[in-house]
Fold this protein.
Amino acid sequence: MGYGLRNVGSITGSIRTFWPDDTETTFHIEKDTSYENLRSKIREKFGEDAYLRGNIKITSEYIHTDCLGYDRYDPGDYACFLKIELISP
């Protein structure tokens, strides 16, 4: 997804945003997800064998996703993600 612009009222494209991109070996999922949904996404992205072999690394990330470029810290401008990576066996 990468960088984007969001509208505020009638002002088009006035707020810069960001959403993490997926790669062949990594994807992000918002933190509020069920175990079943997480397991399903891992199998869908990396296949059943990667899931069963345990080649998956799961970490958390707190990423600035909204109102980029503003100086003041606002916790509402950040999102919590689970970062899922396929690691070498």
Summary: The radius of gyration is 16 Å. The chain has a mean pLDDT of 85. The longest strand covers residues 11-19.
